[in-house]
Design goal:
Elements lengths: L1 E6 L5 E2 L2 H15 L3 E8 L4 E2 L9 E7 L6 H13 L9 E4 L11 E5 L3 H8 L5 H23 L3 E4 L2 H10 L6 E3 L21 E4 L2 H4 L1 H11 L3 E4 L9 E5 L3 H10 L3 E3 L8 H8 L4 E3 L14 E3 L3 H7 L5 H8 L4 H16 L2
Parallel strand pairs: 1-3, 1-6, 3-5, 6-7, 7-8, 8-9, 10-11, 11-12, 13-14, 14-15
Antiparallel strand pairs: 2-4
Helix pairs in contact: 1-12, 9-11
């Protein structure tokens, strides 16, 4: 099929995990024989990473936009203006990864990677009162854009039941929807033979929403060492701040850790869970994380009681962790996505 993809970010211009998600997904869909045109945004907050190669069957058209702030307003306008110049009938179907509040006149599969209405209370933390006020003023426009994007979709993909439940809570989801969990790149995340010199638990992320306060409390009260990987410089008793590292190095830390702890207060999915499992390392994850839905007792624990889970974590076999991760390769995600595409195309 000829696929049109609309997204506010795509490699090599990276905003976050969605960029990696889309690269892996559409590279695999291209390998399945689809011709893909990606209409991708590029803004000042994006960092450019050059080590990406794109298949010849993927054509990328860039739309520069000023800033990620209130992108839900200005980016769709730029998309609208670009599409007016195109013959959109040459595409069989469109896949959107950002909220598009207008009809495209071809079948649309909309994928939702997050739940901004649920995340707002965490995003407001640390902001000035001016920014918080602007967010309060602008948020009704986001709600309108979100509602129209739902209305104009023929099929919807959510990355977890948790994500779908929050969209349904805030808006009501009347369109047929599917759950397709994220994938993991097992060419990068696999068990490494490496020693770090001491036993430790691992936390990957920053901020309250990801669960950093719970991690600091656990390290302080349990006297267990926790390595923290992320962009912030974190201090505290038994905390070792590693900072931001590349994925190859991250895989080494996963492999060496006793367990990865992810006590998120809200996380639509949580790629760190699959990455850790693929490296053979069990996980302790809160019920407020979408990836908790794929966890069984064979590979980790879903709980808010970190201390209790830690005492039993050594009973988990690393091979069981790897086995679970292999159920969620990007090839699997692509095949499941292709099935939804075909359903939308056939009406």
């Amino acid at each position: 099929m000829n696929l049109l993809v609309i997204t506010r970010e795509y490699p090599p211009h990276i905003l976050g995990g969605i960029s990696h998600h889309l690269y892996n997904l559409y590279t695999r869909l291209s390998n399945l024989g689809h011709n893909i045109t990606i209409l991708a945004g590029k803004c000042k907050e994006a960092r450019t990473v050059t080590d990406y190669s794109h298949p010849e069957t993927i054509d990328i058209e860039w739309i520069p936009y000023s800033t990620l702030t209130a992108h839900h307003l200005h980016f769709p306008i730029l998309v609208w203006n670009r599409l007016k110049k195109w013959d959109i009938s040459k595409f069989d179907i469109a896949l959107t990864h950002t909220e598009i509040p207008f009809s495209l006149d071809i079948p649309v599969v909309a994928k939702y990677h997050d739940a901004k209405q649920e995340e707002r209370k965490y995003l407001r933390q640390g902001r000035s009162w001016v920014i918080s006020l602007l967010d309060y003023i602008v948020n009704p426009t986001r709600r309108v854009v979100d509602q129209y994007s739902l209305k104009n979709a023929d099929k919807i993909i959510f990355n977890s039941k948790l994500t779908r439940s929050h969209w349904d809570k805030h808006y009501g989801v009347d369109v047929d929807s599917k759950i397709i969990y994220n994938g993991v790149d097992t060419d990068i995340f696999y068990p490494r033979e490496i020693e770090m010199g001491q036993d430790f638990f691992l936390f990957v992320g920053t901020g309250e929403r990801k669960g950093l306060p719970a991690i600091k409390r656990f390290a302080r009260e349990s006297n267990q060492t926790v390595y923290v990987i992320g962009s912030s410089d974190v201090s505290g008793k038994n905390i070792k701040s590693v900072g931001k590292i590349d994925q190859e190095r991250l895989a080494e830390y996963y492999s060496a850790a006793k367990a990865t702890i992810h006590p998120a207060e809200f996380e639509a999915f949580g790629n760190v869970i699959l990455e850790s499992l693929a490296c053979g390392t069990p996980v302790i994850v809160s019920p407020s994380c979408g990836a908790a839905e794929i966890i069984s007792d064979s590979c980790g624990y879903v709980t808010n009681e970190i201390e209790g889970a830690v005492t039993n974590i050594e009973n988990i076999d690393s091979e069981d962790c790897i086995r679970v991760a292999r159920e969620y390769t990007w090839n699997t995600v692509a095949v499941r996505t292709e099935s939804v595409i075909e359903e939308a195309y056939n009406g």
